Amino acid sequence: MSDRRVRVRVPATSANLGPGFDAFGLALGLYDEASVSVADSGIQVEVTGEGAGEVSTGDDNLVVQAMNATFDQFGERPDGLRLHCTNTIPHGRGLGSSAGAIVAGVLAARALVENGEDRLDDDGCLMLAASLEGHPDNVAACLLGGLTVAWIDGGAHSRAYRLDPGEVSAVVFVPNAPVSTQAARGLLPATVPHADAAANAGRAGLLVAALAGRPHEPVNLDLLLAATEDRLHQPYRAPAMPESLALVRELRDRRVPAVISGAGPTVLAFCQELDSAKLAAEAPAGFVARCLDVDGEGAVVQRGTGNGE
Ligand SMILES: Nc1ncnc2c1ncn2[C@@H]1O[C@H](COP(=O)(O)OP(=O)(O)OP(=O)(O)O)[C@@H](O)[C@H]1O
Ligand SMILES: N[C@@H](CCO)C(=O)O
């Protein structure tokens, strides 16, 4: 092991953004932090904030699983680990908590291994994290920050392209109860009508143009309204999150570009920063609203600073 301590900060992410199912991701300014130190024996996990008292504190903790999967790629596991997670990303809400946990684990393990960066490059981390998560959209945005478009080459190799979005803010409306990604994916049909796929392809292209067309200039929200239209996943998920779909419809009727964030049930609405507080104040009963900036940094690793306590 090279460093015996490391701290990793990972952003929340919103996947899909409407038409980009399993492809688009946006990093948001809400963060989890994992502090890890190598110990002589055993695994000790402490969690504060989101997930405390709920997620496992054993070997099957998601951050630990991702660390062990990464150590196994290097063919070396430390004798013991201390992990302290300080979480603010809510779980099972469509804000990329599982991707954050996986990316934190992969990057922490790589930083703890001798010459880790030379032996597992950033593309390798993306591939490993995506294989653990099952799809690449959230992990890509979590690793790289900004707006990401992810795809899978040859059925196995996850890749991603990062863009800087123009000036835009997000308000997330987070419902009280979670819906697991697994359950929300279970609602999707095996096939979709060709017309729906064609409609989504056009909107997905428009979304990249609308969000990333002019860095440092305000995003055109009228264009973004059209660009965030989706037919591939949101309608099928309505039975699991009817209030969220109703809120998406209500906001869109008022010309606010709103989507289901990731697998839901959070609703993400795009706006200009000046309007975000007003929009958040209109959160209906059952939702807690937060104004979030886009994160441009992605995951950040600090060596020698994790105390694992
Ligand atoms: N920091 C964490 N530590 C341990 N386990 C976590 C952590 N974050 C998420 N998890 C696990 O992942 C589950 C949530 O994952 P899930 O994929 O269902 O939702 P999500 O990632 O929050 O949303 P989405 O994938 O739609 O963005 C939690 O219930 C928990 O088991
Ligand atoms: N693309 C994924 C994101 C959630 O992890 C989905 O919608 O199921």
Observed structural traits:
309 residues, alpha+beta, Ribosomal Protein S5, domain 2, Alpha-Beta Plaits, 7-stranded mixed beta sheet, 11 helices, binds adenosine-5'-triphosphate, binds L-homoserine, amino-acid biosynthesis, GHMP_kinase_C_sf, transferase
Account of the 3D structure:
With 309 residues, the protein is of the alpha+beta class. The protein has two domains: 5-163 and 297-303, Ribosomal Protein S5, domain 2 (2-Layer Sandwich), CATH 3.30.230.10; 169-293, GHMP kinase, C-terminal domain (Alpha-Beta Plaits, 2-Layer Sandwich). Helix content is 36%, strand content 28%. It has helices at residues 62-74, 97-112, 116-119, 122-133, 137-144, 181-186, 194-212, 221-227, 234-237, 242-253, 273-281; strands at 5-16, 20-39, 42-49, 80-87, 147-153, 157-163, 169-175, 258-260, 267-271, 287-293, 300-303. The strands form two sheets. Strands 1, 2, 3, 4, 5, 6 and 11 form a seven-stranded mixed β-sheet that branches. A hairpin with a 6-residue loop joins strand 8 and strand 9 (267-271). The longest helix is centred in the middle third of the chain and has 19 residues, at 194-212. This is Homoserine kinase.
